[in-house]
Amino acid sequence: MSTVENQTAHEAGELEAIMLVGGQGTRLRPLTIGVPKPLLPTAGVPFLAHQLARAAQAGVTRIIMATAYRAEMFAEVFGDGTGFGLEIVYVHETEPLGTGGGIRNAAASLRSGPDEPVVVLNGDILSGHDLSAQLDLHRKTDAAVTLHLVEVPDPARFGCVPTDFDGRVTAFLEKTPNPVTNQINAGCYVFTRRYIDAMPAGQVLSVERNTFPDLIAAGETIMGFVESAYWLDVGTPEAYVRGSCDLVLGELSSPAVPGATGSSLLLPGASADPSATLCGGTVLGSGSSVGAGAMVDGSVIFDGVRIGAGAQVTASVIGSGAKVGDGAILDGVVIGTGADIAGGNELRHGLRVWPGVTLPGTAVRFSTDA
Ligand code: GDD
Ligand code: MG
User: Fold this and answer.
1) pTM for this prediction
2) How far does residue 299's CA lie from ligand 1's centre (Å)?
3) How far apart are CA 164 and CA 186, in angstroms?
4) Is 237 close to ligand 1, i.e. is its CB under 6 Å away?
5) Per-residue pLDDT tens for 340-368?
6) Is the beta carbon of 208 within 6 A of some atom in ligand 1?
7) Where does the chain have alpha helices with state H?
8) What separation in Å is there between the alpha carbon of 271 and the centre of ligand 1?
9) Domain 3-234 adopts which CATH fold?
10) What are phi and psi of 173, to 5 degrees?
């Protein structure tokens, strides 16, 4: 469809967003070997469901899903978006085009007019910020782009974004080793549509390394919308577990959480022995079970997992169908699909067990029996 036809189809009150979900999620391996990061189960539903539900709540009506890695899985999970009160359209990059290339590629499916705002969202963010207020600032300042900015203690891992007294962005320094401020790009942009169309088409492009610095150099108005509401990039296992727990605990409210918020969430068919403790925002997947006296604190347990009696699981992710034996201790680890951790094992910080791996128990047994 040409841009003119798209514009004709554009309805009053429609607000479009492009969702960037083409990343490989390498830092979340082995969880992302078969599943893209935005589809990982988070507080009982695929991660992206929270972003879609919140976007719909904030007035977004139509989403262009910019996919590359395992593209077909997104449509299988979210369909046409009716369940969220949204219209979802899928576009695919045969080769990943980067964040800028992905946005430009999605532009062919937009209906908004050249002067209308289009929201762009990184697909791995949980944010409680006020999108309507960001849109208001964008309109009021007639900016080319308005970026949501947050303050973090470790800005070198992000896009560092200084602003002047008027809130205008003065530089965009992606992953600089020498950040000039703790203020970073939070991964939610409002673009005036014509600035998306002006980006070069059909090539790999980074919005952070190319588009934003180029617009600043050209003297265009890029505004910073600074807000300190809940914000998290779930790109690492620690952050992913934190995000899921925060949703279960109600630290960030999401209409997509399938149940009441509280210290834990049990999905249908999950069971825990009455003497077991589930806390810290733990989610227990369908068909999973927790044995007597076990403790599961601040963890994400996928479907069909068996956790044995007396086991202690803290700040960990346990993949579907995995087994954790009696008395095992797991703290800050990732257990792949179907892995089998025998009782007595003690696994700590950052350890990742690959899918299907069996960790046997100790070969020598000590006993006080005669
Ligand atoms: N369609 C498409 N194509 N999407 C992509 C591609 C691509 O080639 N590459 C990455 N994405 C998507 C990812 O799926 C993710 O949702 C988003 O773009 C950002 O990519 P990440 O790989 O997660 O980037 P990051 O976390 O290192 O940095 C980005 O986010 C930070 C905030 O969390 C940057 O935007 C930073 O400036 C920002 O501070
Ligand atoms: Mg990220």
Assistant:
1) 0.93
2) 25
3) 18
4) no
5) 999 989 999 889 999 888 988 764 444 44
6) yes
7) 3-9, 47-57, 71-78, 98-106, 131-141, 193-197, 212-217, 237-249
8) 37
9) Spore Coat Polysaccharide Biosynthesis Protein SpsA; Chain A (3.90.550)
10) -115, 95
